[in-house]
Amino acid sequence: MGSLLSIFPLRGMANPSKIYFAEDKFKQSPPPPSPRIPRFAYLISGSRGDLEKLWRTLQSLYHPLNHYVLHLDLESPAEERLELASRVEKEPMFATVGNVFMITKANMVTYRGPTMVANTLHACAILLKRTKDWDWFINLSASDYPLVTQDDLLSTFVGLNRDLNFIEHTTDLGWKEGQRAMPLIIDPGLYQTTKSDIFWVTPRRELPTAFKLFTVQLSHIRKIT
């Protein structure tokens, strides 16, 4: 047989000493590693009488991979805030994972006022100080309730670019130029300990020229960096 091979070499066999098997054709490279499961950071806020709703929302949203900041504003009775802190402390899963944090020094928050923005930024600062192991920030009220499970939400977002943001913006202010950009608005929550509505003062101001104003439409989900 050896002499036959030497006389009639196999066609296309440049190196007779190397043996090829049919199985080599079907060998596949190992699959790429699965993308890291995303993590969400939640702020859940409430006011007077929202304790049970806030707790219900937290329970329905909870997932060990996520992070949660809870806030009952200064209008809520001290008893409600103490009860919420007690529940968080006594919940075995929260204590084990350590991913639920309550803002114990309550802020006064005025609906539509800058104190709402200040409270949101306060929560973001707390989250970033505690851990940066999260990808998107979701701002909710105690009245919100999820339509999908957290497992489904995490699975949906696993293939998305982590730098993706859910914000629509434009410099075309429209009616907001005269009703929001030019009036001077005072938020009593900045200096009072009791809640009252924002109010407008005169005179109106001119539009700024040193920078552009944008109007945005935010979804609940944002990337904070």
TrEMBL record:
Keyword Amino-acid biosynthesis: no
Membrane topology: Single-pass type II membrane protein
InterPro entries (UniProt xref): GLCAT14A/B/C, Glyco_trans_14
GO cellular component: membrane
Keyword Membrane: yes
GO-annotated molecular function: glucuronosyltransferase activity
Localization annotation: Membrane
UniProt keyword terms in alphabetical order: Glycoprotein, Glycosyltransferase, Membrane, Transferase
Classification via Pfam families: Branch
Highest taxon in the source lineage: Eukaryota
Protein name per UniProt: Uncharacterized protein
Native organism taxonomy: Eukaryota, Viridiplantae, Streptophyta, Embryophyta, Tracheophyta
